[in-house]
Amino acid sequence: GFGGFGGIANTACTESGFPSLSKVFGDTNKPVQLFGKGSSAVAAGAADEDGDDEAPESAPAETKPLIALQEEAAATGEEDEECIFTTEGALYEFLTEEGKAPSWKERGRGEMRLNLSKTGGARMIMRAKGNFRLILNAAMWKGQTFTKMEGGKGLSFPCKNAVAGPDAKVTLFALKMRVSATHVVQQVEEFLTATKKALDTLSGVSEKGDTGPDDE
């Protein structure tokens, strides 16, 4: 289905994002005393009823099985979809607010993916790099247009971003590729090719994202 799908800086975390062991369990290089204070000297002359001196036996330490923690992959809603294109970029939205001059506003940077569903739908989905915050979740429709930006470093397109909520309206977005200069033109062309493939596979999706009769 098309439900929901980031830079983290924290001195208590390792590069992988998990808390460092020293922060959770203390200094792992510091010796740890497991069984209380150091053993005291055994009183001299202690003997049992038979008169034999015996050193006290220490009780065996109780052992507990270690529980292995398994990392579970978080569900994104894309498990049953086919990704036909992915790229890194910055997403902008063209806003026309009352009392303000129309302008482009950056919505976030991350990975843009173009997915096809098993039910004949297609959508663009984008998540912030690092924390995977959802930036764009937009169904595609027949007749949707994709235009090269001036300079050839990105594409603009109309869409309805479901991240904005149930009252989202169709507005103009632009994706500026964040790849090396030697590959940006190729990436733009590959994105255009992927959008054409996606639009050709749609099963009659209207501009509002509702499934309807095929006009073609």
UniProtKB/TrEMBL annotation:
It comes from the Eukaryota. CDD domains: RanBD_NUP50_plant. One of its GO terms (biological process) is mRNA transport. Residues 41-64 are annotated as: Disordered. Residues 62-178 form the RanBD1 domain. Residues 47-56 have a biased composition (Acidic residues). Keywords: mRNA transport, Nuclear pore complex, Nucleus, Protein transport, Translocation, Transport. SUPFAM superfamilies: PH domain-like. One of its GO terms (cellular component) is nuclear pore. SMART domains: RanBD. The keyword Kinase does not apply. It is found in: Nucleus, Nuclear pore complex. This is RanBD1 domain-containing protein. It comes from Mantoniella antarctica.
